Amino acid sequence: MKTLILRTASNYMLPLLLVFSVFILLRGHYLPGGGFVGGLIASIAFVLHAFANGLGDTRKLLKFHPGFLMPAGLSVAFLSGISPIIFTGEPLMTGIWYPDSLPIVGNLGSALFFDIGVYLVVLGVTLTIIFSISESA
Amino acid sequence: MEVLLAIIVGTLYAAGIYMILRRSLVKLIIGIILLGNGANLLIFLLGRIAKGAPPIIPGDSKVFLEAYSDPLPQALILTAIVISFGLQSFAIVLVKRAHKVVKTDDLDEMNATDEYS
Amino acid sequence: MLTAILSGFIFSIFLVFAGKFFKGKLAVLSSLVPLALFIYFLSFIPQVANGEVIRQSHEWVPSLGLNLDFALDGLSLLFSLLITGIGFLVFAYTAAYLKGHDYLDRFYGYLGMFMGAMLGLVLSDNLLSMFIFWELTSISSFFLIGFNNTSEASRKSAVLALAITGSGGFLLLAGALLLGGVAGTYSISEMVGLSDTIIQSEYYVWIVILIFGAAFTKSAQFPFHFWLPGAMKAPTPVSTYLHSATMVKAGIYLLLRFTPVLGGEDIWNTTLITVGGITMFYAAVHTLFRTDLKGVLAYSTISVLGILVFLIGLGTQYALTAAAVYIIVHALYKATLFLVTGIIDHETGTRDVTRLAGLRKVMLPVAIAGFLAALSSAGMPPFVGFVGKDLVYESTLQMGSWSVVLTAVAIATNILVLYAGFVAGIKPFTGKLPEGFSKVHLPGFLMWLPPVILAVLGLIVGIFPSFIDGPLVKPVVDAVGMDGSAVQLKLWHGFNLVLGLSALTLAVGFLLYFFFKPSKNKERKIARYDFMAPITLITGFGDSFTRFSNWWTRIFQNGFLRNYVSTIILFLVVLVGYSLFTDHDGIPIDFSSFSRMTYYEMIIMGIMFLAIIFVVGARSRLTAVVAMGVVGYAICLMFVIYSAPDLAMTQFSIDTLTVILFVLVLSSLPKYLSISDYKMKAIDGVLSISFGILITLVALEVLGEPVDKEISNYYADNAYILAKGKNVVNVILVDFRGVDTFMEIAVLTIAAIGVFSLLKLRLRRDDRELKD
């Protein structure tokens, strides 16, 4: 499937889709979207790139094994979960918020970091699965 | 529309079970996927469905002003969809592996646990 | 008192860590534990003799009425002294008997556990905690019987004993719960006051049956007696301690304990007299046909247990006094005989009574102990056995119209018990010493002293019955609800009928011993009737039960996935379908909803329906995968229509990824097989279609019910106020139910690691070859 058109297109699609997925992730608290969908869209971007350019190129582009995204994401989510215990002394998973509002994101708070953790885990899981399956196939 | 959806759910279940009952490994996976879709849709249906009322608080208000569809089943199904992807991929890989070791695609020939370790 | 009970358990836990130090010469030190307890309980004698009951209470599970309540009255004290006193001698004896054994520490651990459990059993005032200790004695008995775990016979006997006593424990639990329900309390001392209520309740008969079941299995009454001879596979100290002196008397204890609560009714007395009578005679006759010393002793123990049950059944003042005395008598002489047998076995290597003779020449102290014990068991004056036997005859003679029959049975049994005692205590020591035994020598004092102590005690107590009368026997009789001071223990009653009967017993017994010789031949003859023995019937029942469950398992656990699934689905369809159709008042269908449908909804559903049909009917894998993708996208559109944008996005992405995944692996997946024939397909088709219809009906039924949206409304109302988010689905995921989501991404991670390692891992050499 290494056609020229697809390859050229995917080179532009990858950053676009990634930006889109981050956008989806960030707006998730207010409008449809969030970490699950964002992570899936990002992984579709990478899979598309792998389809067009071959798995080796995508791996080179990523620079590290996607499996490392899973522990990273889990730690981010976990830290955001326990942050209220550390910072304000409130129970686990209580939301803590930055007082001012930001564009797209809205209020910045621990929930957003939790969602980022979900995003990373979903991306890592999907890419690990698809990459290792396509490698062995 | 609920009636039709219920029939669709029933069809998904029936098809899923039928595929699982076939002895072929690939059909087993397809059956599991169909069953998963049916279950998601069933939960969605039982949470009552509504048109044009997503569970998103509109504009500047702080609470819902109009009717909204139930967010709870949606949250459940959302994670279920993602997890079922994990399950499917694991099942696919397991089938590949089993096929390689046992050298058969017939589930009926995989009924002994002792012969392959 | 709790400390006293726990000390046994603490000791056995201590041995887990410090066991290796106790294997050598220090082993004898372990007997200090029961000795200390013995002295501790001795100190209670004056108080208890004055009629006091010492109580202690510790809360355990108050909500279940389960407390660690302990009460020490005459009955408990007698048993506690037996447990710790004989325990002390057995602990000391074991140090020599199993000297150098690899698992000596383990053995002491079991013994300690048993001692603690048995003390707990006799001291518990709470029926439920008593049950727990009861079970613990069964379990420690199991371990001790199976102590020689390399011998198959030992293991089998252990399992058999556990099966019988364990099912008895089950009956005890049922009886305890029923009793607690009727009485409204689990405290035994409170139940005594509620005796009338319990007897008049409609469950009385059931309670009695259950308690009897527990007592009869534990105390080896006919027809459950057979586990006890098997239990003799255990090392001799165990037989002495558990299967003669203490544990098998737990059933007797239970009956005595509940005499004031449940006794006095016809069903209570008649059953006990009948069962006890059959047991004592049946087992006594069996002793004639045994050549293994321990077999003889086992059957004579069963016989004595029968006598005890029989006496409790008589239920008169005399009978209960006799029972109390008999417990002491039996403990003293039977423990002696067992210990003597153990010594013989240990030194000569055989227990075959036809081969043993003349051992008095090489082990005189042991012979003296055996002699004294045999005479006590025979009921010769001035031994304590004589006092006991007298009381038995006196109580049977008081039974009015039945007295002749009952006395006759008692005499016959006593004659045979005498015979058994003589065979075990006298026969091995008299006559000519066989050549092969000339090198046999007397073991260390640690072994021969305990039986001598017990035997001499039997003599002393017989000469001075007042030693046990006031301090021990009377409080027991008081504790079971009779007036203990009414019967005076005496050695000499003057010339009367009882004395005549005693003389008759002794005379016939002596004749029997001198003219009837045990032989292998007789043992073989009786073996012919084994097919109708209870053991054959009950183990036969057990075997067929095992066969049945094997057969059942083979049918249902057959390893065919499709059979499992079909069975589950079939049952679900039948059961749920049945209940749907029996109490149904029409499936509520909201027909007006059809009119609200739009064209594109209908088209989507039509597409989806067709796609499902395609998936099922597809002949190639690719067709099926593509059709499945269509199903997924159709579901995605439905989510869009029915106000679930988040779901739609997720479903879309996942569906895409699934199709990609399938395309990637399709080439390496097995071919699309179509194995089943048309008949199979038809059956499966009917099954799955009816399952689908069932799901549809259930869904419609549920849709007809009102729905409670309290939780959803809470989330929706507070999404912005508490969590500053407006997409409620996302707020639920990352905030309200954040911990759940965290677990879910953890599960995803695990799935990914599973996939990764399943693909990368190459376990074995032949596996690698497969890959090449």
Molecular structure report:
The complex is a heterotrimer of chains A (137), B (117) and C (772). Chain A has 137 residues and is mainly α. Chain A has one domain. Chain A has five helices and two strands; from the N terminus they run H-H-H-H-E-E-H. Chain A has a two-stranded antiparallel ribbon with strand order 1-2. In chain A, helix 4 runs antiparallel to helix 5. The mean pLDDT of chain A is 84. Chain B has 117 residues and is mostly helical. Chain B has a single domain, classed as Helix Hairpins, CATH 1.10.287. Helix content of chain B is 63%, strand content 0%. Chain B contains three helices and no strands. The longest helix of chain B has 32 residues. Chain B is elongated. The termini of chain B are far apart. The model of chain B has no long low-confidence stretch (mean pLDDT 84). With 772 residues, chain C is mainly alpha-helical. Among the domains of chain C are: 250 residues, no CATH class; 151 residues, Four Helix Bundle (Hemerythrin (Met), subunit A) (Up-down Bundle), CATH 1.20.120; 61 residues, no CATH class. Chain C has a two-stranded antiparallel ribbon. The mean pLDDT of chain C is 84. The interface between B and C is large, with 91 and 101 residues.
Architecture blueprint of SSEs:
The complex is a heterotrimer of chains A (137), B (117) and C (772).
Chain A lengths: L3 H24 L7 H19 L1 H8 L6 H19 L9 E6 L3 E4 H27 L1
Antiparallel strand pairs in A: 1-2
Chain B lengths: L1 H20 L3 H22 L24 H32 L15
Chain C lengths: L1 H17 L13 H11 L2 H5 L4 E8 L4 E7 L1 H24 L6 H20 L3 H19 L6 H32 L4 H6 L1 H6 L3 H15 L8 H5 L4 H10 L4 H13 L3 H22 L5 H22 L2 H32 L15 H15 L5 H14 L5 H23 L19 H19 L2 H14 L17 H19 L4 H8 L6 H23 L4 H22 L9 H4 L3 H19 L3 H21 L3 H21 L12 H27 L5 H14 L4 H9 L1 H23 L4 H7 L1
Antiparallel strand pairs in C: 1-2
Helix pairs in contact in C: 1-5, 2-4, 4-5, 4-12, 4-16, 4-20, 4-21, 5-6, 6-7, 7-10, 10-13, 12-16, 13-15, 14-15, 14-19, 15-16, 15-19, 16-17, 16-18, 16-20, 16-21, 17-19, 17-20, 18-19, 18-20, 18-22, 19-22, 25-30, 27-28, 28-29, 31-32, 32-33
